TrEMBL record:
It comes from Nostoc favosum CHAB5714. SUPFAM superfamilies: P-loop containing nucleoside triphosphate hydrolases. Keywords: ATP-binding, DNA-binding, Nucleotide-binding. ATP binds at G384, R385, T386, R387, G388, G389, K390, S391. Transmembrane segments: none annotated. Belongs to the FtsK/SpoIIIE/SftA family. PROSITE patterns: FTSK. The keyword DNA-binding applies. This is DNA translocase FtsK.
């Protein structure tokens, strides 16, 4: 409580104010809030002193803000934090209040513009789009169409506005069909402040006038927009489409406009064709003779500046080389999602020799699968920033594998250090072990797969002429099948940054990437931060396939795609828009599982995966995961895992003695090892680097290193000399 300095006499008012000031300062120091202080003063003092107290408190708060310490944030970090806050539902006032408290004035201005940009350009969730659409339909059903116009005008986001424009077009067409007068549509145009809605209304007025035989001379709208030539008739089959597309350029017109613009930049080109995809429209041009691709490689931002209004460009289009020309991918404001459930029925029997995962939908709308059995895939490296669609891609792959193939055909090894992506798949019979949720359990899982790989190659040795899992299954299936194991690691950056387990994880990955593909063990490695200093170049080079989702930095795109000049992932649109690279690069829209929007369908597929019929007999290595992990830490239980099941730790100890004590062992290179050696050699790796990557041996390993180094050198020399490989 604040004691009253006011005695009701004609004492010196300045003295009383000074006493009140002292009391307020003391109250603030004691932790009282402004409202509590004013309430106490109002109870004890007259209004004139209350007014003075309010002024004093404002001055104290102002001084506190000026004297506070501010932090100079990185603008990229600040933008990311603001974006995540918007997605989480924090209102603008709260975000700006926090920024005002902790940022400099320049950063506060940046935050204001960042908020405006995010609201305008972010891709809303499917739930939000559906919610806005139903809200618009509700408005139309209970209110005049002018209310819909007002609601659309209040929306900032371009994607949500596009939904509104589609609803407007549909309702204008319905109004046309009930013979509304021309003046009705011109009045609607005058009532809207939105340029697109004005154009829709004016164009509908023109169509009505011409359909009724009363031409309307309307060349320019009230806001200066040009009215294009309209058809002389309108019927039910073409009317809605004419209203919807009359303001937009055709793909042929867009292509010619693009070519003309390139000419302005002294780039000679010829329009070839155009395609409409779910995420973007693709215009293909043929560059003139002698025109280098480098002249158009980074022209995207110039096109936004030159053709932003004509082509509806809000983002720089991706520019790529394709057979027969160069393509410009123009983002669609009304992009479509490719839903998982629309592409699979799971009615037919699976092909056990062709295990695949879903890729996505290409620009032609064609579904593209990723064949893990292909030598051009084997292992996949992928990455991209938050909300790029990476997690949805991974979940679609897992859901497809467990529902399409029984456990005798496909097994899964999953690592999820974020603990939120793969938890839904725990308990499936396809798992070789529980989902790994930290670096230690992931290291155990990878060591287990290395040992499993070795046992599989031992099995191949027992059968002449068998070198790969494909050959093994072709010989023994369907009576006997060796299952493929798909190891999917969701966030490798955290794992490879862990000081305690990074060496184990890196060593195991190198072994698996070098030769596990031939044994039917496939590694799918994903990260949000593809740091070149964390993910070893020797590891990256052993991934024949890449999947790059949208990245924040150009260098991230180069790392994922394995090309120092390929920055195209920066221009992707997020939410499942990605590049799939093997011998060529495809741009695909990944399948959306929608496990949060349609949980019943997701759970139904998981239940079917658990209960599906498994008519095959799977080959078993006899290696039990729990017993293997126990042996790693010297905690063997009473169960004997067999003489043939030497653990990774035991094998390492034995190999040191064997190699140093005897030099009579013979090294035989399988097809996978040969391909890895040749691949690294062609990329310029030295002998010691190749031996380290393929066999995980260095000079410190003494005679064993020398033996393997000599074998690799002989192999490479035989290729140079054109002779047969006798190793």
């Amino acid at each position: 409580m604040i004691s009253s300095p006011y005695n009701g006499t004609n004492g010196n008012i300045e003295v009383q104010k000074q006493q009140l000031l002292t009391a307020i300062v003391q109250a603030k120091q004691d932790g009282l809030g402004n409202e509590e202080i004013i309430e106490n003063i109002r109870e004890a003092l007259p209004d004139v002193m209350v007014s003075y107290a309010e002024t004093v408190l404002k001055q104290i708060d102002f001084r506190a803000k000026l004297s506070r310490q501010v932090i100079e944030f990185n603008l990229e970090f600040l933008f990311q934090v603001i974006y995540e806050s918007v997605i989480a539902g924090t209102n603008d006032e709260e975000i700006l209040s926090i920024c005002a408290e902790h940022c400099t004035l320049n950063q506060y201005e940046f935050a204001r513009y960042a908020l405006e940009y995010i609201h305008l350009n972010r891709m809303p969730s499917q739930w939000e789009q559906n919610n806005v659409y139903h809200k618009m339909i509700e408005i139309v059903n209970i209110s005049p169409i002018e209310s819909l116009f007002e609601y659309i005008e209040s929306i900032k986001n371009i994607y949500l506005k596009q939904i509104g424009y589609e609803v407007v077009q549909e309702n204008l067409y319905n109004l046309f069909l009930i013979n509304k007068e021309t003046s009705y549509f011109t009045d609607l145009a005058n009532k809207s402040r939105d340029k697109c809605i004005k154009n829709y209304c004016y164009r509908t007025a023109v169509l009505v006038a011409r359909a009724t035989g009363k031409p309307l001379d309307l060349k320019v709208t009230a806001d200066g927009s040009i009215i294009l030539k309209e058809p002389k008739y309108l019927d039910r089959n073409t009317g809605a489409n004419e209203i919807a597309t009359s303001q937009n350029l055709t793909m042929l017109q867009a292509g010619k406009l693009l070519v003309d613009t390139l000419e302005d930049f002294n780039i000679n080109a010829k329009y070839v064709d155009a395609k409409n995809g779910p995420t973007f429209n693709r215009i293909r041009v043929k560059l003139g003779r002698g025109v280098s691709y480098k002249k158009v490689e980074d022209i995207g931002n110039d096109l936004v500046q030159q053709l932003g209004e004509e082509l509806g460009l809000k983002f720089a289009p991706m520019v790529s080389v394709v057979p027969g020309g160069v393509v410009f991918d123009i983002p669609r404001l009304d992009r479509q999602f490719a839903y998982f459930r629309d592409h699979f029925t799971f009615d037919s029997e699976p092909d056990i020799h062709s295990v695949s995962i879903p890729g996505g939908v290409d620009v032609d709308g064609t579904y593209v699968e990723i064949p893990l059995y292909s030598d051009n895939v084997t292992h996949i490296l992928g990455g991209g920033r938050t909300r790029g669609g990476k997690s949805q891609f991974e979940k679609a792959a897992i859901l497809y594998l467990v529902r399409r193939y029984p456990p005798s055909v496909v097994r899964l090894a999953l690592s999820d250090v974020k603990r939120v992506t793969f938890g839904k798949f725990d308990g499936l019979p396809h798992l070789v072990a529980p989902v790994a949720r930290n670096a230690e359990s992931t290291a155990n899982l990878l060591d287990y797969l290395v040992e499993e790989m070795e046992l599989r190659y031992q099995e191949f040795e027992r059968h002449s002429s068998i070198e790969t899992i494909a050959q093994y299954n072709m010989r023994f299936a369907p009576d006997f099948i060796m299952p493929r194991v798909i190891c999917l690691i969701d966030e490798c950056f955290d794992l490879l940054s862990d000081d305690n387990y990074c060496d184990r994880i890196e060593t195991a990955l190198m072994k698996l990437l070098a030769k596990a593909g031939g044994a039917g063990i496939h590694v799918l490695l994903y990260t949000q931060r593809p740091d070149k200093n964390v993910i070893d170049p020797l590891i990256r080079s052993n991934f024949p396939a890449k999947t790059a989702f949208v990245t924040t930095r150009p260098e991230d795109s180069c790392i994922i795609l394995g090309d120092d000049k390929d920055k195209r992932a920066v221009y992707l649109l997020g939410y499942g828009d990605f590049l799939y690279k093997t011998t060529e690069v495809l741009r695909l829209q990944a399948l959306y599982v929608a496990d949060d929007e349609d949980p019943e369908y997701f759970q139904q597929l998981l239940l079917e995966a658990k209960n599906q019929n498994d008519p095959y007999t799977a080959w078993q290595s006899g290696l039990d995961f729990d017993e293997f992990v126990a042996s790693l830490y010297g905690e063997r239980n009473s169960k004997d895992i067999g003489k043939s099941k030497t653990t990774a730790v035991t094998k390492t100890k034995q190999s040191k003695t064997d190699f140093e004590g005897s030099f009579n062992f013979k090294v035989q290179l399988d097809e996978e090892a040969r391909n890895s050696i040749l691949n690294l050699h062609q990329k310029g790796y030295q002998l010691d680097e190749i031996v380290k990557a393929v066999f995980n041996l260095s000079r410190q390993d003494g005679r064993s290193y020398k033996k393997f180094r000599n074998v690799v050198e002989e192999f490479l020399n035989s290729l140079k000399g054109g002779g047969e490989d006798d190793i």
